[in-house]
Structure prediction request, 532 residues.
Amino acid sequence: MTVLRTGVDTGSPEYAANRAALLESLAALDAEHAKAVAGGGPKYTERHHRRGKLLARERVELLLDRDAPFLELSPLAAWGTDHAVGASVVTGIGVVEGVECVIVANDPTVRGGASNPWSLRKTFRAADIALANRLPLISLVESGGADLQSQSEIFIPGGRAFRDLTRLSAAGVPTVTAVFGNATAGGAYVPGLSDHVIMVADRAKVFLGGPPLVKMATGEEARDEELGGARMHGSVSGLADFVAEDETDAIRLTRRVVARLNHRKQGPPPAHEVEEPLLDADELLGVVPADLRVPFDPREVIGRVVDGSRFDEFKPAYGTSLVTGWASLHGYPVGVLANARGVLFSEESQKAAQFVQLANSAATPLIFLQNTTGYMVGTRYEQGGIVKHGAMMINAVSNSRVPHLTVVMGASYGAGNYGMCGRAFDPRFLFTWPNAKSAVMGPKQLAGVLSIVARQAAAAKGREYAEEHDAAMRELVEGQIEQQSLAPFLSGRLYDDGVIDPRDTRTVLGLCLSAVHSGPVEGAAGYGVFRM
Prediction:
């Protein structure tokens, strides 16, 4: 393989400015992550500890194997909304008794762990990841159920949580639930639909209706324990498979359940020895320009991510705005597609379609490194077939069956987002760098398009067009689109699986590659009709 060399001048003013801008973005990102980690704040976390209970992340930490990594997913969920950052639930992938698992842990310090619309989306995403990659799903439950103030947005879609658990079980993907406190109303079905259930004595409360509701509905006076306590479920109803003495014991029992699952990876193991990149990952902070309109060479990223900085480029002299080629990452063979100059032309589209087909024929996972302004427009390119060639690329990506991993490094605009496997195309995982932006087009371009349309409408009606109004409209639109294209905004709406430090890209992709190989890795057997 070819060993990639660097052309980055780490002593240049441009590099220093890029690095400073990205470090500033990372500092802002850390402040938002801290809000999620803080949960409901000192008052509620201290009260939770006084009751002898562990926090959600403390439960996760005890559950994981010693020194095992935890890839937290969607930590910025609900950012920019009226709900707490993190959406009152912690989700991620970690190793338990040597088995990679998806873990979902309610945060009871945030409104009692009650689910809001973003909690649902985050939980659904975790279940999707578990099913697609055949990873056991562990639920650490303590929740007051639905946030009733948002019931209109929760009740109907919330039923999917029940469906997901049953489908996981039917697909042979184990589901394990440990109940630490309340699991009431609809929440009672989480243990009810799980393969394995552990409950904490004198803490867990699992019932469809609590004492007040039972009193109102039937007139019956009932106490928590006889209605839904752990000991009752362990000896009378049979809902609990194990009754733990305390939270630590519940974690121990959960680990023992996982140890006895006999769960095996179905994908191939790493095919190569793991080699650290020859190029320094810390330099990624200065590689990407602060101004996303300035192009950069994605080989500078590839060389700092793949094993040994080794990369066999495919069609290097054809369709040069898109870099494609073969490498290995943490020992796993991968194909890489990375935008070089942002715009996708007909040549890049055809090159991508062929490369995706080759990856499927070799059952090789694909990594998409996005920095695209979309497909080229203009008379020459329309007449040259950009629509059918872009459609060819989108067809290939859509019908590809090998695992896709996407990282948005910079711009992600227009249909380029689709062709480079954006969220709508269901990559197994999608992560964003903090400097990245995504929208239908850039703010200035979108405002300009609206201005042109408004001018044409005024002219058609014989009216004079107000320049003052146009300037105000442009400013308003540009500000709105800029805000809505930022990484935290998009991550808050779960359009990615998290905003990551560029220096962690290799580690994150390595964890994801290991996860996707828990399931079979197979290529597509066929494609739709390609317009030639």
In short: The CA atoms of residues 440 and 474 lie 16 Å apart.
